[in-house]
Amino acid sequence: TIDFSAGALACVDTYKWDFGDPSSSSNTSTAIGDSHTYSGYGSFNVTLTAGGNCSADTSITKQVRILNANI
Fold first, then answer.
1. Which range is least confidently modeled, 10-14, 19-23, 24-28, 31-35?
2. How many Å apart are CA 37 and CA 41, to the nearest integer?
3. How far is CA 8 from CA 32, 65, 66, in A?
4. How far apart are CA 28 and CA 10, in angstroms?
């Protein structure tokens, strides 16, 4: 499980997370921050699109790697 947060941004009132995990039934969120439990190990591209009344929608994508941590 990973916690994600956009933080409060001026003029931004819509958030859309895509956790890059299409095997998951909870692959998206519209909360300012949320948690996601990945369905397996590997690399996933997480995209946040934020927008509002005084700005165009802007997206950023970052890759997260989920490792098998069996020790």
1. 10-14
2. 11
3. 8, 26, 27
4. 23
